[in-house]
Amino acid sequence: MPHFSQIMRDLIIHPEDSTKDFLSKIYAPLTNKTVIRGGICKSVLPKLIESHDRVLMLGHGSPYGLLNVGKFSDAGSYIIDDSMVSTLKNKTNSLFIWCHADEFVQRHGLSGFYCAMFISEVGEAFYYGFDDVDWHMIDKSNARFVSVVSKYLNEPMERMYQK
Q1: How confident is the model at residue 158 (pLDDT cuts 50, 70, 90)?
Q2: 160 domain-assigned
Q3: Looking at CB atoms within 10 Å, which of 90, 129, 138, 146 has the fewest?
Q4: How many domains does the chain have?
């Protein structure tokens, strides 16, 4: 793993979806990045993952991976799934931000920063029984989340967990 004072080459896999565009603020300050929002074949991803120091994966997902919202050819339902695990195991400082990413990461013994259920829309809040939530609260929560993750993104993983 490169030292964090070195310039890292970051691969961002963030399927294009207006409901998850707010997550782009997490990686906006990064300078040496390749952002993939769609338009490539899933079969190209392992080589891209290997050629970068860190992988940030953001969007809609499930315990089975990061969902393909129709922008990646040959991907099926998921752009990141079990087929990418062997390549991702070589990355110790990845970022997994999608609903239930914790289950995916833990099941496969991957390492990095990840989240569990991430309520980022009013419909999700209602589904999980939070009836008193509105868009203002969700927007505020989303903004705080991306602010904190962006602030500590370049900290070594062990320091992120101490904050």
Answers
A1: low
A2: no
A3: 129
A4: 1
